[in-house]
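Renewal narrative, Specific Aim 1. Our central claim is that a sequence can be written position by position from structural information alone. The example that follows is taken directly from our test logs and has not been curated for this report. It begins with the structure tokens describing the chain, in the order in which they were read.
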């Protein structure tokens, strides 16, 4: 699907597009990984980083797909469930990692991007 718009994917690959949009965890586009494998890889990588830095604060800068996976892991939401939460660009999203996995602490915090916050920081 790389390099294609959503409309082009739908037009050129209608069956694959339906599985992709329905969040079929077993589906992977040709040459790509399944949603399940992506979820495991993304959440596993962040968990590994957290384990190496137990008791410390860490920052992970990533794209929306990884953030979606972390949210689902922390909120215990199935991969095929539709997204009902916000995921703004450049927002701050906080999760806690423990022996029980991830837990949501704060999500979609974009205060630092608002006009008043920017003006206060410039003073």
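The sequence written for that structure reads:
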């Amino acid at each position: 699907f790389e390099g294609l718009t959503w409309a082009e994917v739908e037009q050129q690959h209608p069956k694959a597009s339906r599985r992709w949009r329905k969040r079929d965890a077993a589906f992977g586009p040709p040459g790509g990984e399944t949603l399940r494998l992506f979820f495991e890889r993304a959440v596993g990588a962040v968990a590994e980083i957290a384990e190496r830095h137990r008791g410390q604060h860490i920052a992970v800068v990533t794209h929306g797909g990884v953030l979606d996976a972390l949210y689902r892991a922390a909120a215990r939401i199935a991969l095929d469930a539709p997204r009902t939460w916000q995921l703004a660009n450049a927002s701050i999203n906080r999760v806690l990692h423990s022996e029980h996995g991830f837990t949501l602490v704060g999500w979609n915090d974009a205060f630092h991007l608002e006009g008043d916050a920017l003006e206060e920081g410039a003073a």
